[in-house]
Write a structure and sequence with these properties.
Layout (H helix, E strand, L loop, with lengths): L19 H7 L8 E2 L2 H17 L1 H10 L14 H21 L2 E4 L8 E4 L4 E5 L3 E2 L11 H4 L1 E2 L2 H8 L8 H7 L2 H4 L3 H11 L3 H40 L1 H16 L4 H12 L5 H4 L5 H9 L3 H21 L1 H32 L4
Parallel strand pairs: 2-4, 5-6
Antiparallel strand pairs: 1-2, 3-4
Amino acid sequence: MNHQHNHPTTPNLRRRLICGATAALLAEGCTPDLTHVTDEQMYDIRSRVEFGNEYIAPVLLEMAHSGNGECIFGVDGESGADAFERGLELTIKNSNNLLESEEFYTFYDINYGAGAYYNYRLNLFAINTAYLYIPDSDDIQDRQEMEYGIAIEYPLFIHEFSHEYSHHTYSTNQYTESDAYGLGDSSSIYQELIVNDKDFAYLLEYSSDELDKFLRYSVLNFIDGEKAWLETLIESKNDHPEVYECYQQEAIERISTYQTPEGWSSLMVEKKIGLPSFITAYWNVSIDEQIRIYAESGWYEEFIEEGVEEITSEIKREFGSEFVEGRLREMEQYTMQEHIRKSRELDGYNQEMKLK
């Protein structure tokens, strides 16, 4: 869906936005003028939230049940993956209720320090367009951010949706209004809000943010990247035959790594090793478990498999079907074993990694 955004110039964000619930306390008695979202905006909001509920929330839940430690908890800090699951289910239930009622609004207030808020008494959700814009449903990777500023994403939606059942403590509100939050690094913020305060809304936001970004920017870009690489190789056939000849084997090796959900998942997780990871550092989910969860997530079947078939067919046409199939059979077992070996070698390192 393509449509015009009525979005003013986004101000320079010197500090992190605070939660809408905190902003409401700071601006008590000051109610912004609200405008109900348009039909197109409602469609875009519905698409973004339902996408997250369908593809991110189930994977997040699997990660929670596969991890361990004090940073997995539910509403009011109740410990354990079962408590987290109950809190997540309640949050999704509230999101569905709000989508059904369509009580979504916008307002513009540069002095209101939050990008969005949920009013559980009035059962409405409001987005501050001074800081955030509502992304088009067909712009899942937020390419319009260069023009419109910062998109409101699923992690912020479920943070606010959770406030039907979970509320910030006085300590959390005080901290998120301070410079320690506004200008602090991620690890100090996680220590305060997750480890110390056990704030469920922020736990939902930070844990889902990793999966949300991974899905939208890495997974959904994967096939386009592989097609572009293959296209460049084929185009070199006439002008640079030595390059074409040299990279034939690499082309087959590349596709051999992602012919199955397990192989693709191993490849994707291996690329993430060494990067800051909330799931790894705070939930202690092992690399092997992350590979399994992504392989069983349905992401491969939904977003990758069709593209893999197209790429494989193109390589068979280019290099010869019998030759390619023979090489794929030879590499099938080796590829999976090699990815698993590498992942296990690096698992210990990634577990000890400190977030920056």
